[in-house]
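Amino Acid Chain and Its Fold in Token Form
===========================================
Purpose: to set a sequence beside its fold so the mapping can be learned.
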Amino acid sequence: MRVNEIQDLIKFVSKSNVSEIQLETTDVKLTIINETSKRRGNGKGEQEQMMYQQAPFVQQIPQQQMQQQQVVPQQQPVQQAPAVEAAPAKDDTSHLVEVKSPMIGTFYRRPSPDKELFINVGDEIKIGDVICVIEAMKLFNEIESEVSGKVVKIIADDASPVEYDQPLFLIDPS
């Protein structure tokens, strides 16, 4: 089974209501679980879904520091917030398209350390262009663009781990 066949299966499962697919051949045993489908209520249940969710991070503050934080606001006089009119205008990014990771793995911006980068900020890309590689379990998966446009921002850091559905790039389709 080739990598692009596995990628096609992953895409199919993520876009369908199928919650899980298992495939076994003589040399490969593959199980793909669609967490999105489970969240929509089409999966095996909420209890199984909870096993896959990561516990939230809770920062512990020493008690002495917590007491200082409680005392300080009471000693300062109450001030009104400045008018909202002074806020600078933000760029309208609603038209930008996020290219997200189709899998968990390590994100690479070039095919190998001695090769050129796939894309840079400002480059024009077309549908089907290879934009990065994600390495998962010693397999290097070429990720192709599903949108045409201009690369506005590269969000993920080179050689860093990425999660499924994590934004990698911002593309201006206009």
Remarks:
- The CA atoms of residues 163 and 169 lie 14 Å apart.
- Confidence is low (pLDDT under 50) at residues 42-60, 65-69, 81-89.
- The first helix runs from residue 3 to 15.
- Residues 3-46 form one domain.
